[in-house]
Write a structure and sequence with these properties.
single chain, alpha+beta, D-Amino Acid Oxidase, Chain A, domain 2, nine-stranded mixed sheet, 26% strand, binds flavin-adenine dinucleotide
Length: 385
């Protein structure tokens, strides 16, 4: 196996929040996303549009908006449920190959709410998740129970929830270990290669990079995140993949941040303890071109949203400010399976949940490639839909 990769620093898999939470892994198009989207003109909104909308964003928006209904969201949830059910099992298999050290927490995820109505909405969502066939265990907490579990939360937190049987990882460490596993298993990683064209012939697939290098293979799997559409389109993939950019930064151990994975859904802020005792803080959904310059104000927006929910935080301590692109599809489902060419397969479009679902969908795709039979779990994820 040869991995051809341009640069991992801008990969979503590096800068994400590291929650492996199938209980939360619901499709993006839903009425709440639409309501948040209507506030894009406010700089404090967690949903933003940056730059001049291009044709990809317009194609995405015209498909995404009609899907933001309860009925269509529930339909998509049922389609992704078979993947969510096996997501953590696939991670356990990866652990056994060498990524286990990147798992920082197997404790329940703590969710903090300022308003009991938001807790109620989350519980309703969880009931739909359970009805879709994904078992989830959760406990509702009072304000004092929430704060006794996580004393860094402020008096603004009026109630909470524990979501059991999930986990969180240190994403950069996970990538390092995964890379080592690939090399240990005899794979090659060709870094710094920007693939600009794929040519299929009777002999195989040739990936040509911008510097003229050509990598030859029997088959190719296109797994290029938010940059999927330009390469995949020629192989029949019509669904646009849109960059939903997220922002994250690092707070040092002395910053008095939560020591367990803590999610503030109303503020759309995620706090993730890293392996070295620091905390990664992430948020924002900004629709833009993947290479659009990052907006430094977004880091302040995240900090300002989280601040009232935390006791005392010196936000000036933040470092490692990062921005990267979630590969979002308009129907909220990944694109995994065969393309028009029998030599080219697709693995992408996991949106907000690629860390959680990626190993499961990759394993199913590997089985499809090896046997020629598409597994039933991938039926709804057909990239040619
Ligand atoms: C702020 C944030 C928080 C998130 N939190 C979570 C979370 O808690 N849990 C979760 O499950 N998911 C989370 N996600 C989503 C998750 O990170 C993504 O779904 C996942 O990482 C996508 O993986 P990918 O491999 O498809 O894309 P990427 O990780 O972006 O990788 C794509 C790779 O392809 C390379 N590439 C692209 N085009 C080319 C080309 N032409 N030639 C060569 N190389 C190319 C890129 O350089 C990159 O290395 C989050 C995302 C963000 C941004």
């Amino acid at each position: 196996m040869t991995v051809v990769d341009r640069d991992t620093d801008d990969a979503a898999s590096w800068g994400n929040a590291g929650y492996l939470t199938p209980g939360f892994a619901v499709p993006l198009p839903e009425p709440a996303a639409l309501r948040a989207g209507l506030k894009v003109l406010s700089p404090a909104s967690p949903v933003q549009v940056s730059g001049i909308p291009d044709t990809n964003l317009l194609r995405f928006a015209t498909r995404f908006l009609p899907r933001c209904s309860h009925r269509r969201w529930d339909h998509a949830l049922r389609a992704i449920s078979p993947i969510n059910r096996i997501a953590l099992q696939a991670h356990e298999e990866l652990d056994a190959t060498g990524t286990a050290a990147a798992v920082v927490h197997r404790d329940p995820i703590l969710v903090g709410f300022r308003d009991s109505a938001d807790l109620k909405a989350k519980l309703t969502e969880l009931r739909h998740v359970v009805a879709s066939g994904m078992p989830v265990r959760s406990d509702v907490l009072t304000a004092s129970e929430t704060r006794s579990l996580e004393p860094t939360l402020s008096a603004e937190v009026s109630c909470g929830m524990l979501l059991h049987d999930q986990r969180s990882i240190d994403p950069p460490m996970f990538l390092r270990l995964l890379r080592k596993t690939v090399l240990d298993e005899g794979g090659r990683i060709l870094a710094g290669q920007d693939v600009v064209a794929l040519n299929v012939s009777g002999r195989g697939v040739a990936a040509r990079s911008a510097d003229g290098a050509v990598t030859q293979a029997d088959i190719a799997v296109l797994a290029c995140g938010a940059w999927l559409s330009p390469l995949a389109r020629q192989f029949g993939v019509r669904q646009p993949v849109q960059a939903g950019r997220g922002y994250s930064f690092r707070m040092p151990p002395e910053a008095n941040m939560p020591t367990r994975p803590t999610y503030l859904p109303t503020q759309r802020v995620v706090c993730t303890p890293l392996a070295d005792g620091a905390t990664r803080v992430s948020g924002i959904m900004e629709f833009a071109r993947p290479n659009h310059p990052q907006n430094p104000d977004r880091f302040t927006t995240i900090a300002a949203a989280a601040d009232p929910m935390l006791s005392t935080v010196d936000w000036t301590l933040r470092t490692e400010e990062w921005c990267g692109s979630r590969p979002c599809t308009a129907d909220g489902l990944p694109l995994v399976g065969a393309s028009h060419s029998e030599r080219v397969f697709v693995h992408g479009g996991h949106g907000m949940w690629g860390m959680t679902q990626g190993p499961a969908t990759a394993k199913l795709l590997a089985r499809q490639i090896a046997t020629g039979n598409p597994p039933s779990e991938l039926a709804a994820l057909n990239p040619l839909r």
